[in-house]
Please model this.
Amino acid sequence: MRATGKRDKDLKTNKETILVVDDEKMIRWSLGEALRGWGFVPVEAATVGDGITAFEAESPAAVLLDINLPDGSGLDVLRKLRQREPDAVIIMITANVLVDETIAALRGGAYDFIGKPINLEELHVAIRNGIEASRLRREVNLIRRERSRQFSFDQIIGQSPAIREMLAMSQKVAESEVSSVLLQGESGTGKDLVAKAIHYHSNRADGDEIGEVELSLQAKLLRVLEEGAFRRVGGLKDIPFDARIIAASNRDLKRESENGRFRLDLYYRLSVIQIDIPSLRERGDDVLLLTDHYIESFGERLRKRITGISPEVAKAFLQYDWPGNVRELRNVIERAIILEDDDVITMKYIPRPVSGGSSDHASHDGHGAGPFHLPSGGVSLEEVEMSLVRQAIERSGGNQTKAAEMLGISRDQLRYRLKKLEESAAVPG
Model:
């Protein structure tokens, strides 16, 4: 009851306009009085022409539309209004509820169908739910557009032949109707970004870290994929299932299946299209493009003005194998930006495995890196903390106890910081 009351209060505050299109003056008056009592602003029209004109002038939150009008059918008006505004909330009203008309109205995009005499409580609920559904639909569409921009293929940085070939194939897959896509690549190569780019640039998608799914669950997943249906727990009938599966794994699933750790039939069902994500060591000069990207991104977040890397660092980056791939590079750049005092990243704060052992101040285990220096422009303490937490988790292989020991905090304190880390947005790469 409280939720309903709050929503009613919001509607009264917003004062949405409701268009009433009906040729009976008494119906228009009574509906207008009810709408005013519910906190809406009613607008009336008695004909098809006046209704369309009022709709274009007022952009109402909802339309109450009579099927039988003196100069045409309300079903024709429904189609015209939907052409002008596909998300319009249109509730059809008629004295004679006929099955054919009801079906035609709902197929034409009507939100609901109410018969005369009108049950005002039923109408109020329909209007309120219709406006709420329309608002949620607009919000979802906005989020989808934002996500589409955030996870576009253009956000995947690289010009090497390996990455360009992978992106070209991924774009073709996104535009196709292929039912299953398998992304394979080492940890840290960016499988999640490729999966999201495919997802947000296609009509349908889903995702999973498939190599971690237990064999018992693999059998259930295979059944869903093969039969195109699933059954809820305790359900009595199958529900049709129509979606694209984008599965990602850092394991060689063919080899895993041959060793009995992954179902071979599921592997073949998932790998209708297989996309191999190249490792960073296969991408040549892409490491320098990604370095520039992360310097700009982290520099802005950490309020540090870093213009680039020294020639020695560039040489070390090109020679290093990057077993942790793009994720490792991101962590190296983030750490260096936090610690660096100069306006370019030097070898001083590059971890020893990356620098080839030439750094006197930075070691792989993090000890002997020298004191932290507060930049003259200041730094975000939270960003520094989150960077150290992320590095500890990476270095410990996900072992929270070891990560907590590295940071000198308790496991509960680490978990609290991990929750904060999960809320931060992922940086494209």
